[in-house]
Amino acid sequence: MSAEKKRSFGLGKGLSALLDDSTQVNQTKDHTPKPVATAPEVNDAGAINEIKVAEIEINPFQPRTDFDEQALNELAESIKLQGLIQPITVRRLSAHKYQLISGERRLRASKLAGLVQIPAYIRTANDQQMLEMALIENIQRENLNAIETALSFQRMMDELNMKQEELGERVSKNRSTVNNYLRLLKLPPAIQASIRDGGISMGHARALITVESPTDQLYIHQMILKEGLSVRKVEEMVRNIAKNADKRPAANTNKGIAPLSYQAQKIQDDLASKFSTKVKLKVDAKGAGSIEIPFLSDDDLGRILEMLDW
């Protein structure tokens, strides 16, 4: 071996020891450097790396919770034929362990396709940076439903201490758009589920969030599902409800019906949410009263009776 080769190898080994990096060096029989298998070489963050699917764990901050099974199977078939074209993004936890930042749909489909290795960008990020990257990338690039988007916005505000203006700048949306999404989370659970599942559109939802009473919201929601109401028709119903509310007397004390207390109003709203329809609670001055649960059809009555375990 020449002196030049000895000096070159010795220097490389010394730098490796000083830096204590994850790629250690062994000597082969011909005295050439060789990476140790326990610390695989990883290219820089801008390069594409091939990593084992079995070494990737799911991102706990993933905002997407609903994956279409048929779409996943179709993507898996495409991957079998063409391979995975768009790499996922991960962060490295240890020599043979990675955590997904974005691309869970692609990862799931790759597993269905039977891939052993997958192309990936590898980044270094702490949990807060990882959450922000995952949320922003999903909001901007994935087809999230409106409720998933709203939940992502809420998490960014709660866990990253962002104001609405800052959040809007990060996701390239104006403040009013961000606010409209966040207001969806104040709708009754039954309506949120309907938005998530595509039962009503974002246009319907925007009209419903202007209605103050949850019982009125649920009544209109049932009418949308039953009659297939357009967004314009719903907006008209909302305006009529607002006009009638302005003309409504404060309390009908002549008939002995007292206005609902805060607790009674809360019970009425909770019942309306439970039965996904407008519920009316009546309480007189002596504390006696009744509960009215209207239904829109025989099927709707059957649904309510089933919930009552009738």
TrEMBL record:
The keyword DNA-binding applies. SUPFAM superfamilies: KorB DNA-binding domain-like (SSF109709), ParB/Sulfiredoxin (SSF110849). CDD domains: SPO0J_N (cd16393). GO terms for biological process: chromosome segregation. GO terms for molecular function: DNA binding. It holds the Pfam family ParB_N. It comes from the Bacteria. Residues 20-39 are annotated as: Disordered. One of its GO terms (cellular component) is chromosome. Residues 49-139 form the ParB-like N-terminal domain. Keywords: Chromosome partition, DNA-binding. Belongs to the ParB family. This is ParB/RepB/Spo0J family partition protein. It comes from Mucilaginibacter myungsuensis.
